[in-house]
Amino acid sequence: MCRISGIVYKKSGDFAVLNKMLQHQVSGGPDAFGTFIDGNVGLAHNRLSILDHNTGAQPMVGDWFVLSFNGEIYNHLDIRAKLEPQLYKGHSDTETLLKSIQQEGLDWTLENIEGMFAIAAFDKYEKKLHLVVDHLAIKPLFYYEDDELFAFASSPAALTHLKPSWNLDYEALTDFLALGATRNPLFSGIKRLESGHILTFDCNKNASKIIRWYQPKQHKTNPEDLILEVKRSIQSTKLADVPVHLFLSGGVDSSVVASQLPGVGAVHLASPEEGFARTVAKKYDNPFIKIDPRDYSAEGCLKDYA
After folding, report:
1. By CB neighbour count within 10 A (0-12 exposed, 13-18 middle, 19+ buried), where does 300 fall?
2. CATH number attached to the domain at 3-212
3. Is 299 helix (H, G, I), strand (E, B) or coil?
4. In the predicted model, what is the mean pLDDT of residues 58-62?
């Protein structure tokens, strides 16, 4: 969807690097760009417009919070209904999120929203920057801190613009080579904010702390209720001002999604399971769209990924 980034200078600094970070993440948010600077704090946003093309621009400035947000809040209309009546400029989930944080607070908002998200919320009066990732860190967020600054971005590579050279994180490299995955990036000092956590940077004290905001809960339910919840969850993702498509691998999970979204375009990444995917798409009247990676250059793909 979108990409977010930001810098807090502990003394003073040049925000030209923020524009470099902004440009680095353009592939994830090509529709619009925005920045907000207040003293030593700078926020940036690359937008991929899904809801409210006209008034959903970011960073979105409120009465006392500024929001840069990547993701989607599926139940944002339900959240609006719970808030005190107030004037909205548009119908974006970003504005709902901002109003909710200002009216009910960050804790209440996180307890009530449903979606996938990486949030940067700057309190203009307390001079605190809150970074939040969703329950599973579906929308990633990376951060870096040294004696001069604190910075964050949706992509670890965007943070490499902060200084001319970086050392390798050999522990992360070892994990990657042995396991094919790593918790933190390969650049030493750049870390990933873990799922269900909040990082708060106090600009007055130049100090940060991380706490867990989400604790998994056990739910006793019967199969019928579970089926209804799956259907409700899938239907809630359809809210958009642009055409909606789904990824269809041909496996169980994506086939369940397709069954609940008949007529929606089904995108399949060329694989040996194409036959299964075509069968599912035909059954539920999903127009089948095949994408073959061989049609794209490796150099271009790697550039967009970084």
Report:
1. exposed
2. 3.60.20.10
3. helix
4. 94
Q: Which of 293, 296, 24 is nearest to 160 (CA)?
A: 24
- Residues 143-179 have pLDDT tens digits of 999 999 999 999 999 999 999 999 999 999 999 899 9
| Cβ 99 vs Cβ 62: under 8 Å | yes
Angle of helix 252-260 versus helix 223-236 axis, rounded to 10: 70
Cα(216)–Cα(201) distance, integer angstroms: 25
Distance of CA 120 to the CA centre of its chain: 10
Tokens at residue 72, please? 């989607």
Q: What is the pTM of this model?
A: 0.89
Q: Are 74 and 236 in contact (CB under 8 A)?
A: yes
User: Residue 297: exposed, middle, or buried by beta-carbon count in 10 A (0-12, 13-18, 19+)?
Assistant: exposed
Contact 124/38 with Cβ under 8 angstroms?
yes
Compute how many other C-beta atoms are within 10 angstroms of the C-beta atom of residue 21.
28
Residue 184: C-alpha distances to residues 19, 21, 71, 99 (Å) = 24, 19, 21, 33
